[in-house]
Amino acid sequence: MNDFAPLLYLEARSIVNTLRQVAKQPARLVMWLLAIAYFGFFGYLRSHDRTFAPTARGLGEPFDTLIFCGATILTGVGIYFAAAGHVAAFTSQADARFLIGSRLRERNVIAWLQIRHTLHFAGRLIAFILLYTVIFHQAGTFVGMALAMLGATLTGAAFGIPVVKMQHRFGDWSGYALAAVVIVCGVLPALFVGLAYIAPSAVPLANATVHLGLGRLVATMLAGDGWSLAGLFGAAAVLNAAAYMGSQDLYPELYRTSERSITISALRRSGSLSVAAALGVRPGRRASAGSVASADSGGALLSGAWALLWKDWIAFAHSKNARSAFAFAVAGAAAVGAIVGAVARRSHDPGSTIAASVGGIGSMLVVFLSFGSTIALAVDLRKPVWWFSSDPLRLRLYVWTLAGGWRIAVPIAVGVLTAAAVVGSLPLLALAVPAIVMFVTFLRAIGLALYALFPSRLDQRGPVAMLRALLIWLALMPPVFLWLVLVVAAHAAVLGGILALALALLELLLLVELAVARIANNGIAFAQAEG
User: Fold this and answer.
1) What burial class does residue 319 get, using C-beta atoms within 10 Å of its C-beta: 0-12 exposed, 13-18 middle, 19+ buried?
2) If phi over 0 gives left and psi between -120 and 50 gives alpha, with beta otherwise, what is residue 338?
């Protein structure tokens, strides 16, 4: 166990150096202190104030059962990514070469790598939960919600190393097969529950699913029940102990998967492909805004700043994981949309039901996307070709804002259009697509503006994620308020939607212009600050 002492020392020194960098910049320091104060305040409030103390356990059925199904599906998705080579291991080439070449025992190094990644990921998920501590104040206690999330994360992360070991012994297919089994185990109960809202004949099947007690287990965990949490952490301990015992002769596999993950992360931060390819610059040609050639056909397709759209498509087309995740998201969105539409059709006010459902799911997407994504332009900004392009920086940033959002917009549009088609709402069908495009582009514009203010990757993964979610809600309030006023006062839902979209577009333009003004004269400084 002495191997963990130097590993802890390295991590402690990294944290201390990071804190010193933050302390040297007052704006960043204030932002971090405010974020810590926010979580501390609501954590104390949720634990001591009767107003926010839980009066019921869980969200109620069938939502508690669906939460269990969602956690199971996410575990299966994690297994799939582990099978595809995305195992949390070394964070950089230097990290890999230093630890592999050291005298530390391989088993302890691998265990430390997994613990480090899991705790970082769990910390972000706990912060995600705390944003909803007031909204869902009946879901559970502060301590119960945090411990349940931590235990679930530790349980899911324990599958990473066994999957790599299993694939090493039985072949790559074994990891994907395990992922499919776990995902099906989560999808089937959720499907049984969802069918009850569409077909009355499925109600007995949904009741039988709920009576399995999966939801009660979730409710007791969120409420802080000691025995339920002990069982969860016991399962996590057993799985992690098995992973620890099997962590032998895995350095070659982990190095290969780590190298792949590091490369993909670097490409993602740069927009998935090199800027030279995006701007049509080939070896031996001048750095100008030339045309972009297809990797398959070699034909000229888009030029200048608009090549960023083609670049994003090429990255998607050449990534099997991205295509699989996209297909899964589209299918899931269609299923959710069908259920929401069926429920709305039976209600007395279908429009209000759909609006409430879209608002609730949309608010969760805002926080999920805020904490699950970061904005990064350092690789682009470091390249002279980015600045030598004949297209202005303004146009490139506008196109960049549009380029990466379609993979988010399409599943959301499928879900909303499915719900609207089931209900038969023509106004919703007419406004759904432009509203969703505006919403997703709005998310990216706010992320870009905050990046222009706080480019550090640490800030992006920390308080900026929380700030992004809060700013999205604040920025969406004026358009939504305008729409509601016109609907209530003039019964002009379509006109209100058009004017609300126009107001949102104006806000979007102001956000991108802020980023343009900040980045235009300080590109290299932003590239250095991001790292």
Assistant:
1) middle
2) alpha
Joined tokens for residue 388: 């030598």
Whole-angstrom Cα distance, residue 123 to residue 143? 13
- Provide the token pair at 62: 């069938």
Structure tokens at 262: 């590091």
**Alpha-carbon span 273 to 280, nearest angstrom:** 12
CB 450 within 8 A of CB 464: yes
Structure pTM?
Answer: 0.68
Mean pLDDT, rounded, of the chain: 75
Q: Which of 520, 294, 525 is nearest to 396 (CA)?
A: 520
Cβ count near 37 (within 10 Å): 10
Q: Is 230 exposed, middle or buried (0-12, 13-18, 19+ CB in 10 A)?
A: exposed
Residue 71 has φ and ψ, to the nearest 5°, of -65, -40
* Residue 407 and residue 326 in contact, taking contact as beta carbons nearer than 8 Å: yes
Write down the H helix ranges in 58-171: 63-83, 93-100, 106-130, 142-157, 160-170
DSSP category for residue 52: S
Tens-place pLDDT, residues 304-347: 667 777 777 887 787 777 788 888 888 888 888 888 887 777 77
Q: Cα separation of 326 and 48, whole Å?
A: 43
Question: Whole-angstrom Cα distance, residue 354 to residue 314?
Answer: 35
| Banded model confidence at residue 182, pLDDT cuts 50, 70, 90 | very high
Q: What is the DSSP letter of 302?
A: E
Are the C-beta atoms of residues 160 and 82 closer than 8 Å to each other? Answer: yes
Contacts of 21-26 with CB under 8 Å at 24 or more apart are 22/458
CB 312 within 8 A of CB 408: no
What distance in Å separates the CA atoms of residue 133 and residue 259, rounded to the nearest whole number? Answer: 38
CB contact burial 290-317 (16+ within 10 A = b; e otherwise): bebbeeeeeeebbbbbbbbbbbbbbbee
Q: Report yes or no: 173 and 257 within 8 Å, Cβ to Cβ.
A: no
* Number of neighbours of residue 103 by Cβ within 10 angstroms: 6
Is-contact 178 75, C-beta < 8 A?
no
Query: What is residue 223's DSSP assignment?
Result: T
